Amino acid sequence: MSDMSQVEVVYLPTGAFSPGDEAVVIALIKIEGGREAMLVFSSLDRLMAACGQGQSWVSLQVDRSAGIEELARVCGVDTIVRDMGDPIPVRHSIPKQRGAQS
What we know:
about 100 residues; alpha+beta; two-stranded antiparallel sheet
């Protein structure tokens, strides 16, 4: 059994997905120099404040010592932005229904 003090729950913005999908795409942002970074939030409230209510997301339990860094490596990035406070554009908006007025 794992030591729960070594585990943290994090929230990550993703591409749109449906229940039952076997994989999700972690949303990345562009940072200085044109590099990409992975956004990680310590609560769903913080993710929603930064990304908006229409943002798809996933929560993960990761090892505190290296879990986020390993996930970033798998996603092909070396920069992690935690709890970004400034609002950012929604990466994947909810599609409008046909006939919906703007």
